[in-house]
Design goal:
Elements (H helix, E strand, L loop, with lengths): L6 E9 L2 E7 L3 E8 L9 E4 H10 L5 E4 L3 E5 L4 E5 L9 H10 L5 E2 L4 H12 L5 E7 L2 E8 L2 E8 L7 E6 H5 L7 E4 L3 E6 L3 E6 L2
Antiparallel strand pairs: 1-2, 1-4, 2-3, 3-15, 5-6, 6-7, 8-13, 9-10, 9-12, 10-11, 13-14, 14-15
């Protein structure tokens, strides 16, 4: 049977003068590429989610990260964080997974105006349910559909161009949360890929 990668953290992978950051919950993969001088000897490491969130919230100006044999240390301005070191031997190459999905996609287009509002309406109509939407491409239209306890959502948004017909079922909240950071998308029958600059890619697989 098919399997999906899942880890609740941020994977850091060096690639020449680029540091690749990946996070996944099996339904989505987020990729960010950072141009930085990667120290010699630095290898792949996963920052546990709580550890990564502490760094972002309590030391937004940045930290110096130390990877020791048995722990992680992040040293910020007046604050230091510690974490266990997770075993990443045998971990999937997240960058390769994202690249394969991009290679299978048709051309990219700008996201249609009104998508954020349509997803908000889906959440309202779903009431206490988790809003799941069907998104489809046909001709030059991007359609968002959902049938919920409080009503039906059926909105057709105009695209700047055309892609091959495709249809996916996704969680509305997972799409809505990333919209502020992306401008373009591509889609086929297996996944939706959203892209922002610089180097940010968000992959959503169909439910």
């Amino acid at each position: 049977p098919a399997t999906r990668v899942e880890h609740h953290g941020v994977m850091l992978s060096p690639n020449k003068n680029t540091l690749e950051l990946h996070g996944t919950d099996s339904a989505t993969i987020a990729q960010a590429l950072v141009q930085v001088a990667v120290p010699a000897g630095f290898s792949q490491v996963v920052l546990p989610r709580d550890f990564a969130e502490q760094i972002v919230s309590q030391s937004p100006e940045g930290v110096k990260l130390y990877v020791l044999e048995d722990c992680l240390i992040a040293e910020g301005d007046g604050i230091t964080f510690y974490s266990n070191l997770l075993d990443v031997s045998g971990a999937d190459d997240m960058g390769a997974i994202v690249d394969r999905q991009i290679d299978d996609q048709p051309k990219r287009l700008s996201l249609p105006p009104g998508l954020d509002a349509a997803l908000s309406r889906a959440a309202i109509l779903a009431g206490k349910e988790e809003p799941v939407v069907s998104i489809s491409l046909k001709g030059g239209n991007f359609t968002v559909f959902g049938d919920y306890a409080l009503g039906t959502l059926d909105e057709s948004l105009k695209l700047e161009g055309k892609m091959p017909d495709a249809k996916l079922r996704i969680k509305a909240e997972l799409l809505k949360r990333v919209l502020p950071y992306v401008e373009h998308f591509s889609m086929n029958e297996s996944c939706l890929i959203l892209m922002g600059d610089p180097g940010f890619t968000y992959v959503m697989v169909s439910l």
